[in-house]
Design goal:
Helix 5 (109-128) links the parallel strand 4 (94-97) and strand 5 (132-136). The protein has 276 residues and is an alpha/beta fold. The two termini are 14 Å apart. The mean pLDDT is 96. The chain has eleven helices and ten strands. The strands form two sheets. An eight-stranded parallel barrel has the order 1-2-3-4-5-6-7-10, surrounded by four helices. It has a two-stranded antiparallel sheet with strand order 8-9. The radius of gyration is 18 Å and the shape is globular. Residues 23-261 form the Xylose isomerase-like TIM barrel domain. This is 3-dehydroshikimate dehydratase. It holds the Pfam family AP_endonuc_2.
Length: 276
């Protein structure tokens, strides 16, 4: 089990990347999922790279960005080249993005075909650079449901296209995340773990709220205290070997919650290993 913190969890805190690396190391994490905004803001400082992170015994598990699939082709490719360069600098071959800005039910066939075409072009580019493009299962995108995600994989039909499986958002779509994981498992390269007290609070993860410093955090709970059964999920996910995942926490007391959740995840992983 390889666990990472997400630097996006600290977006409203006054911590340096050095402090985050210290925290990740001291809290038993193996890596850092670097938010694209943070990678871009560090681009001019040559002191920070994969080698620097390795001095803490850590790796960059993924660079999480938002590639502009709906922009003009030159703009899209320029951004892809920039992100690819940053990923190489930080020593990761995994680049995360979203597909579209509308849910699958609201995306007409012409728009879906164009997005899929763009996605294939990006996959070809990243494959040439030894990298993978991970699309995240997320509401208001073409991967907002299991059927649409499977369809997108089939339509794109490219080996560089992979899945960042967000467990909560897959559960939010109305399917059993364990069953969904089993169907998508051949394509999953990373997981996002977070939880919620009940469905009525799911709106707290809407981008306009979760990215706002003054946004509501009501309903956000530690990993093993919410509606999604992570004991069950982890037992199934780890049954077939090691996985890589990031703990996403957008609420208060970020260090304490992440450390607590990491300790609990490691306990479950140890039990699975003993019983396997």
């Amino acid at each position: 089990m390889k666990l990472s913190i997400c630097t996006i969890s600290f977006r409203h805190y006054l911590y340096s990347i050095d402090q985050l690396a210290h925290f990740a190391k001291d809290s038993g994490f193996q890596g850092i999922e670097l938010w694209g905004v943070h990678a871009k803001n560090l681009a001019d400082d040559n002191n920070y790279s994969a080698d620097w992170l390795a001095s803490y015994g850590l790796k960059t598990s993924m660079l999480s960005d938002y590639l502009p699939l709906e922009a003009s082709y030159p703009v899209m490719m320029e951004e892809a080249r920039h992100v690819s360069m940053l990923a190489k600098r930080w020593g990761t071959n995994k680049i995360r993005t979203f597909v579209g800005k509308e849910g699958s039910a609201d995306t007409n066939e012409e728009k879906r075909k164009e997005l899929t075409k763009r996605l294939r072009i990006l996959c070809e580019f990243f494959e040439e650079n030894g990298q993978q493009l991970l699309v995240e299962t997320h509401p208001s995108t073409l991967t907002d449901s299991l059927p649409s995600t499977l369809r997108l994989l089939e339509e794109t039909n490219h080996p560089a296209l992979r899945i960042n499986f967000d467990v909560l958002h897959m559960w939010e779509s109305g399917v059993d995340p364990v069953a969904a994981m089993k169907q998508l498992r051949p394509f999953i390269s990373h997981f996002h773990f977070k939880n919620i007290a009940s469905r009525e609070y799911l709106d707290v993860f809407a981008p306009h709220n979760v990215y706002a410093a003054s946004g509501s955090r009501e309903g956000m709970v530690p990993l093993f205290e919410g509606e999604v059964n992570y004991n069950e999920f982890l037992e199934e996910a780890l049954a077939n070997g090691e996985i890589e995942a990031s703990l996403e926490w957008f609420g208060p007391n970020v260090k304490n919650v992440l450390k607590q959740d990491a300790d609990e995840v490691k306990k479950v992983a140890s039990l699975v290993k003993v019983n396997s």
